[in-house]
Write a structure and sequence with these properties.
The protein is mostly helical and 56 residues long. The protein has one domain (2-55). Helices cover 64% and strands 0% of the residues. The longest helix has 17 residues, at 15-31. The two termini are 21 Å apart.
Length: 56
């Protein structure tokens, strides 16, 4: 959620806009698929990443 919040800008002091941003942030957090893989920058890492996303 912190990565989402810091990536979205808008007029949060305007209640109507802030409500819309909040709804959008919640939808992204609820619906987006997220992976966290720790690996080296090599061919095996690329295949692991591809396979993890492809299977989901």
């Amino acid at each position: 959620m912190p990565a989402i919040l810091t990536s979205i800008s808008g007029k949060r002091w305007d209640r109507k806009i802030a409500d819309g941003l909040h709804n959008t942030e919640n939808a992204i957090a609820r619906d987006a698929r997220v992976w966290h893989l720790q690996c080296l920058p090599d061919g095996d890492a690329a295949r692991t990443c591809h396979n993890a996303i492809k299977v989901s």
